[in-house]
Amino acid sequence: MRAQLLHLSGPERGRTVTYGGASVHIGAAKSNEVALPAPGVEPRHAQIDFVEEECQFHLRAVDGRVFVNGNEIEEVILQDGDRLEFGVGGPMARFRIYVPQGAVCKPVRRMLADARDVAKVSGGAAGTQTLSRDLLTQATPRLKIGVPAVLVVTAFLASWLGGFLGSRPAEVDNAITADTVTHAELDQLRAEQQKQQEALAQLARANAIVSRVQKEWSRGVCLLHGVFRVRLPDQSWFLGSDGEPFEVEYTGSGFLVRDTGFIVTNRHVVAPWLEMGGVVRVLETGAEPTFTHLAATFPGMLPIDVPTTSIRRRSDEIDVAVLQVDAAAIVGVPVLPLHDGPIESADQTAIVVGYPTGLAALLARADDSLVDGLRQRGASFTEAIRELAAAGQVAPLMTKGIVSEVRPDRIVYDASTAHGGSGGPVFGGDGTVIAVNYAILPDFGGANFGVPIRFAQELLP
Predict the structure, then answer these.
(1) How many Cβ atoms from other residues are within 10 Å of residue 353's Cβ?
(2) Mean pLDDT across the stretch 163-184?
(3) Contact 157/123 with Cβ under 8 angstroms?
(4) Cβ(349)–Cβ(430) under 8 Å?
(5) Which phi and psi (to 5°) does residue 294 adopt?
(6) What is the pTM of this model?
(7) What pLDDT score does 294 carry?
């Protein structure tokens, strides 16, 4: 199997190129297999690797920003037909999987699963035959020599020997173990094989989870756009220095957690004035903050008005909140799975999904003609978001990192994010939401943190 790129734009536009190596280096440097000397492309921008054990292609960002189907990624499993973009507004290509005639590639985990299915119905001998046939006809040369020899054959051999030794009379058992293998050696072999299986299974699960977050769960993450003013006790608007009503416009993130329309976000996203010292001082005089606009926009859908009366905030300082939109307006939007139990039990992966830098990031990824039209008309935030949504160009970004610390009231991780990403979900390695992202935490040297999801669950009905 080989990686193939149809170059849609950039220096190679119009060309379809098939790359023969297991690794394809992409960047501005001429030494790369894919040389793209273009603005925004780093010398070592990205890399595509074929992982034989999985029969899959991995795309990894190296020194540059990489987008797959409009979503920024750190590393992802590529699917045939994915649209790749190297740098913001940079060269674009369509990824294809080229399979030479006669080539075969069946993942080891699929071989094992098929063999188990056959064994359940037709017995262990038939299952072993199925596995042997797959190894001979469906594996790559490297797999035929390497992984199956250690991982698969020893697994079946150990299992067969274990059953054989356990079922023989004691005197026969003693003779066999004395001449060939001891129970201790067999147990050690089983333990080593189990570790190898677990490592392979963990890698497969992690890749599958990243892919599912990107392709499915990200559609349940919304852009929240709010505009508020301050109403004085006499019901007039508080005025700014220009004599016009003082008005604040901002964006944040949220995610759907109930099919009845409940969305989780940060408290400071639904009450941004609490983070603004000047506004707080005005509110202390008896003034009231008033939303003039609050809407949630999910990928593939138009903005949905959020009734401000649906907002629920905690009475303590924990920075989470929930709000509710009309359930009829979110049909087809996936409800994100929430982690149940201690966070320590989750894998230490952190996958952050949201809308960092808000409208700016959306415009950077949008079609040039659409952006030019918005600029020429002097479109407002609200108009721009609606037109981007109508054009199907509202989608969150995804970054991946490691959880470095778990505290009772916060989870610290290094997955990059920025203002505007506040309120988005943080997925753990088990594929469930473990926290609500709170963007940047300066006290931890630029690390980021989230509020454990249990605090948000306490606000849900």
Answers:
(1) 27
(2) 42
(3) no
(4) no
(5) -150, 120
(6) 0.58
(7) 97
